[in-house]
Amino acid sequence: MSTPQSGPLSDSDLKGTNLDGQAAQALRARRVTQIYVYEAPVRLWHWLTAASIVVLAITGYLIGSPPSTLSGEASSHFQMGWIRALHFMAAWIFTIGFAGRVIWGLFFGNAWSRELFWVPFWKAEYWKDLLDELLVYAFIRKEAKTTIGHNALARTALFFCFTLTGLFMIVSGFALYSDGTGIDSWEGRAFGWVMPWLGGNLSTHYLHHWGMWIIILFVMIHIYTVTREDITSRQSLISSMTNGYRIFRDDRPD
Amino acid sequence: MAVLETFYDVMRRQGITRRSFVKYCSLTAAALGLGPEFVPQIAHAMETKPRTPVLWLHGLECTCCSESFIRSAHPLVKDVILSMISLDYDDTLMASAGHQAEAILDEVMEKYHGNYILAVEGNPPLNEDGMYCIIGGKPFVEQLKRVASGAKAIISWGSCASYGCVQAARPNPTQATPVHKVILDKPVIKVPGCPPIAEVMTGVITYMQTFDRMPELDRQGRPKMFYSQRIHDKCYRRPHFDAGQYVESFDDEGARKGYCLYKVGCKGPTTYNACSTVRWNDGVSFPIQSGHGCIGCSEDGFWDKGSWYARLQDVSGFGIEATADKVGMVAAGAVGAGLAAHAAITALSRARHKGDDTQ
């Protein structure tokens, strides 16, 4: 929206007018626009995945480094049993959610719901936006352009640290799960190739463990950036993932 | 096809009369709960079914596989090598030596071409044209390739032949190479372990002799009947694992009570073998039962997969010993500090532009 003034109104501009003495800020109120970006299944998936990641990371860590030993009869405890059961249950929620999210994105969802499945690295615009966004985070550029879906940097981080890492965790996780269900189970048949490929059972545990740390670091950065963007950027972030609407705080051109 | 020696031939050669042989067949039928009409069938089988010739070669190895093999209780190893199979060449067990021994190898290879089983203990080192392991004046890899060319099937005894084992641990100076990477055109049965369990070794041979076919193998080429479950799955200490009761150190109360050895590095949960069911020395015990964690000796590359006394593999390349958790926590701390600093700069930069709502 273009304003008739060459610059924003200040209180001194109102001197001598019938508005003298009033704050100029109210006159500069902008048109607020919003777009429905995150459809209900996407929002539901987001929060289910977030909850399952919390459970998976805590129980997964405890499987690698169990709590102190318990005294008494073995028959009166089932601590590691419960830790593993919770891990497997959360893993199923994560996996079914992941599969459902792929189906939604491919067949039902809007254009923005497909953004996390690839990165358009063949487009010059993508690299320019990525650089601009990096410069904003380095405090060199003042502000980034608004985006309806994800900005280029967010999309890149999502694709590598969430989508690819998450897929790796599902595949390596089911391969490890087949340890318990046996090589003739469907998990063993479908994912038995994974462990020899990754260099054995112990190496698979090890890489699965690394995957957890990549996702933990991603979650930390994710929560920080959405909070920061929600406060400082020209568009809404956190509320968008609860009500689905992306609200733009101005309608200036980029 | 060359004529193979049958059980009957062997018995006659050892001085047993035809009359005694028929008596033996009757007794065998009775022992198996069969009627008298089966006696001629048994006699026929004994007279016609050939004993499989086995050539047992030794490469770069420690002979622990042979040591284990000769302790087999079910079946007794004497029954295996004297009755079931015809162990024609095994330089650590045979009486003859030198040229005599090598002559037997050539004779069997020629006579039973395409019909003998090659059992390999140890592996060939390929560096320096195989000069790190010399048998009868020639590199072992040459003997292996020569004998393998006429074999019906190959059994890779132990982790050396199956995966490389200690001599293939990083940096593997002799380039010790498992058999299946040298012999590419023959079926290879891997029987890993350092050593494999005696009953597993004789079990594989008994199966092949009785049913005249290879046992069903898993994806890695191991017989499913012995290697399809983890030690952890059938471990008698498993209830302590599920309960959350662990040995924290080897001299604590938990160690005395026989708790789970998971925290002191037991590799039972990542090792496929039959130790917790078959056990060792006629079922007397196995490592976990004697209070020490499994070291995972039947798994590929177990020498290079970190400490035997730690659950989590160390991260190499950081200059210090650290687990994935330590590195991960340091990374999380660094990222957290970075984010806090970033937030502070963001807040400062916004404070400077306070009231300037074009920002």
TrEMBL record, chain A:
<feature type="transmembrane region" description="Helical">
    <location>
        <begin position="85"/>
        <end position="104"/>
    </location>
</feature>
<keyword id="KW-0813">Transport</keyword>
<feature type="transmembrane region" description="Helical">
    <location>
        <begin position="44"/>
        <end position="64"/>
    </location>
</feature>
<keyword id="KW-1003">Cell membrane</keyword>
<feature type="domain" description="Cytochrome b561 bacterial/Ni-hydrogenase">
    <location>
        <begin position="37"/>
        <end position="244"/>
    </location>
</feature>
<keyword id="KW-0472">Membrane</keyword>
<dbReference type="GO" id="GO:0020037">
    <property type="term" value="F:heme binding"/>
</dbReference>
<keyword id="KW-0408">Iron</keyword>
<keyword id="KW-0812">Transmembrane</keyword>
<protein>
    <submittedName>
        <fullName>Ni/Fe-hydrogenase, b-type cytochrome subunit</fullName>
    </submittedName>
</protein>
<feature type="transmembrane region" description="Helical">
    <location>
        <begin position="207"/>
        <end position="226"/>
    </location>
</feature>
<keyword id="KW-1133">Transmembrane helix</keyword>
<dbReference type="InterPro" id="IPR016174">
    <property type="entry name" value="Di-haem_cyt_TM"/>
</dbReference>
<dbReference type="InterPro" id="IPR011577">
    <property type="entry name" value="Cyt_b561_bac/Ni-Hgenase"/>
</dbReference>
<comment type="similarity">
    <text>Belongs to the HupC/HyaC/HydC family.</text>
</comment>
<dbReference type="GO" id="GO:0005506">
    <property type="term" value="F:iron ion binding"/>
</dbReference>
<dbReference type="Pfam" id="PF01292">
    <property type="entry name" value="Ni_hydr_CYTB"/>
</dbReference>
<keyword id="KW-0349">Heme</keyword>
<keyword id="KW-0479">Metal-binding</keyword>
<dbReference type="GO" id="GO:0022904">
    <property type="term" value="P:respiratory electron transport chain"/>
</dbReference>
<keyword id="KW-0249">Electron transport</keyword>
<dbReference type="GO" id="GO:0005886">
    <property type="term" value="C:plasma membrane"/>
</dbReference>
Automatic annotation (TrEMBL), chain B:
<keyword id="KW-0560">Oxidoreductase</keyword>
<dbReference type="GO" id="GO:0009375">
    <property type="term" value="C:ferredoxin hydrogenase complex"/>
</dbReference>
<dbReference type="GO" id="GO:0009061">
    <property type="term" value="P:anaerobic respiration"/>
</dbReference>
<dbReference type="InterPro" id="IPR001821">
    <property type="entry name" value="NiFe_hydrogenase_ssu"/>
</dbReference>
<keyword id="KW-0408">Iron</keyword>
<dbReference type="GO" id="GO:0009055">
    <property type="term" value="F:electron transfer activity"/>
</dbReference>
<keyword id="KW-0411">Iron-sulfur</keyword>
<dbReference type="InterPro" id="IPR027394">
    <property type="entry name" value="Cytochrome-c3_hydrogenase_C"/>
</dbReference>
<keyword id="KW-0004">4Fe-4S</keyword>
<feature type="binding site">
    <location>
        <position position="275"/>
    </location>
    <ligand>
        <name>[3Fe-4S] cluster</name>
    </ligand>
</feature>
<feature type="binding site">
    <location>
        <position position="160"/>
    </location>
    <ligand>
        <name>[4Fe-4S] cluster 1</name>
    </ligand>
</feature>
<dbReference type="InterPro" id="IPR037024">
    <property type="entry name" value="NiFe_Hase_small_N_sf"/>
</dbReference>
<feature type="binding site">
    <location>
        <position position="235"/>
    </location>
    <ligand>
        <name>[4Fe-4S] cluster 2</name>
    </ligand>
</feature>
<feature type="domain" description="Cytochrome-c3 hydrogenase C-terminal">
    <location>
        <begin position="227"/>
        <end position="307"/>
    </location>
</feature>
<feature type="binding site">
    <location>
        <position position="232"/>
    </location>
    <ligand>
        <name>[4Fe-4S] cluster 2</name>
    </ligand>
</feature>
<keyword id="KW-0472">Membrane</keyword>
<keyword id="KW-0479">Metal-binding</keyword>
<dbReference type="GO" id="GO:0051538">
    <property type="term" value="F:3 iron, 4 sulfur cluster binding"/>
</dbReference>
<feature type="binding site">
    <location>
        <position position="260"/>
    </location>
    <ligand>
        <name>[4Fe-4S] cluster 2</name>
    </ligand>
</feature>
<dbReference type="GO" id="GO:0008901">
    <property type="term" value="F:ferredoxin hydrogenase activity"/>
</dbReference>
<dbReference type="InterPro" id="IPR037148">
    <property type="entry name" value="NiFe-Hase_small_C_sf"/>
</dbReference>
<dbReference type="GO" id="GO:0044569">
    <property type="term" value="C:[Ni-Fe] hydrogenase complex"/>
</dbReference>
